[in-house]
Design brief:
Length: about 250
């Protein structure tokens, strides 16, 4: 894979999947721009791999507008965009009971929706005008966005929303010469996993395995698809929505 001369923008770049995508894209020669609110972690991730770090609160439209202006001045345009930032409805140290719908805290709920849903909608709104023809967008969804996730129903709802958006934007973005897909992994060993969900014999995938799939989705000819990644040893595959004819 060659990304020489390509501009790759990644949200949630301070850790997890985002940091792995930044590292891998830089390895293949891309000019990377990592976004996060964790300035220390984001700067460290970028410094380690090369590229540019930008502070961006993905839930805030003014933050996106400022970023878009900076990218227009510094890079001119974007070839590949990875809208990756995401959180669950409670912090990882919280007991699993806090993730139940009946335990919902309004401030936590609004924060999660701001990151998981607004972070994608606002990112597209502000950065689509910077996308170069032939460019590609990958959104980090989740297995919880295509199947039930009893542990955190609100998180599952937010990821179902993203799945619906990606599937529904195919035609409109194709008119602009752009593609969009969602990567929907199963359990990944990242910082948003509830601590109480860890342990036992359950095997988590690594962020690096998902990053490899993200870069391949940048270059796929498919669009509007939800790609499931369930095991490290198995390739991604498309889960088609009911009623959609396969192209």
């Amino acid at each position: 894979m060659q990304l020489d001369g390509k501009v790759v923008v990644v949200s949630g770049a301070a850790s997890g999947i985002g940091a792995s995508v930044v590292k891998l894209a830089a390895k293949y020669g891309a000019s990377t721009v990592g976004l996060d609110i964790d300035d220390e972690g984001g700067q460290a991730a970028i410094a380690q791999n090369g590229g540019t770090y930008q502070h961006c609160d993905v839930s805030n439209t003014e933050s996106w507008a400022t970023l878009a202006d900076r990218l227009r001045s510094s890079h001119g345009g974007i070839d590949y965009l990875h809208l990756n930032a995401g959180i669950q409805s409670a912090p990882p140290q919280a007991p699993l009971a806090d993730y139940r719908f009946g335990s919902m805290q309004i401030d936590r709920y609004k924060k999660m929706m701001g990151v998981n849903v607004d972070g994608v909608v606002l990112g597209l709104h502000h950065l689509l005008p910077l996308m170069r023809t032939g460019g590609s967008i990958v959104v980090t969804g989740s297995l919880a966005g295509v199947t039930p996730y009893d542990i955190d129903p609100l998180y599952s709802m937010s990821k179902h929303a993203i799945t619906g958006l990606v599937r529904s934007l195919k035609s409109e973005l194709s008119e602009q010469g752009l593609r969009i897909n969602a990567i929907c992994p199963g359990a990944i060993d990242t910082g948003i996993i509830p601590n109480d969900q860890r342990g036992g014999d359950f095997q988590f995938m690594t962020a690096d395995h998902v990053a490899d799939e993200v870069l391949h989705l940048f270059q796929t000819t498919e669009s509007g698809a939800t790609w499931l990644k369930i095991k490290e040893s198995k390739p991604v595959y498309i889960m088609h929505p009911p009623g959609r004819k396969r192209d």
